[in-house]
Amino acid sequence: MSPVLPDERLAAGAARLATAHRGRFCAETEQRVITDSYERLATTARVTTHLVVLAERLAADRLDALAHVEGAPGSGLPRVLFVCSHNAGRSQLAAALLAHRAQGHVTVSSAGTHPAPAVEPVVTQVLTEAGVPSAEAAFP
Question: Distance between CA 90 and CA 111 in Å, rounded?
């Protein structure tokens, strides 16, 4: 029996994760990761408007990292992790710039020890001015 999702909208995200990781993980693992991601984000979220989308993105990052650690086929790209305290400025800027310049040849992530609720607006502005297309999609 599948675990109960805390928000029924997560089912679509779980289905997308299943497609992206076909043959790597079972559906139960993917559902546990997306549920755990949602619950972790929900505990500190100040705004919950996009919580389902953010949970799916976090789950995708976590599953990609797990696949890399386990040596799954197709997960052999080099991985770079940028870390700062709030994951709202320096690490976001560095990760976005490297991802943009690497053009898919490196898997890039960012993290923070005490993640802020949002990326600093000035960072988003700088990335937009630099022509980085994912500037609006960044999140701590």
Answer: 10
Which among 63, 54, 65 is positioned nearest to 107, based on CA atoms? 65
Residue 121 half-sphere exposure, CB side, CA atoms within 13 Å? 0
In which band, very low, low, confident or very high, does the pLDDT at 32 lie, cut at 50, 70 and 90?
very high
**Nearest-5° Cα angle at 99, 93 to 100:** 90
Please count the other Cβ atoms lying within 10 Å of the Cβ belonging to residue 30. Answer: 23
Q: Which residues contact 118 (CB under 8 A, 6 or more apart)?
A: 88, 139, 140
Q: What is the pTM of this model?
A: 0.67
In 1-140, which ranges are continuous DSSP H helix? Answer: 10-20, 27-44, 51-69, 90-102, 121-129
Whole-number Å distance between alpha carbons of 85 and 65: 21
CA distance 74 to 55: 23
Residue 135 DSSP label: G
- Computed on alpha carbons and rounded to an integer, the radius of gyration of the chain in Å comes to 15
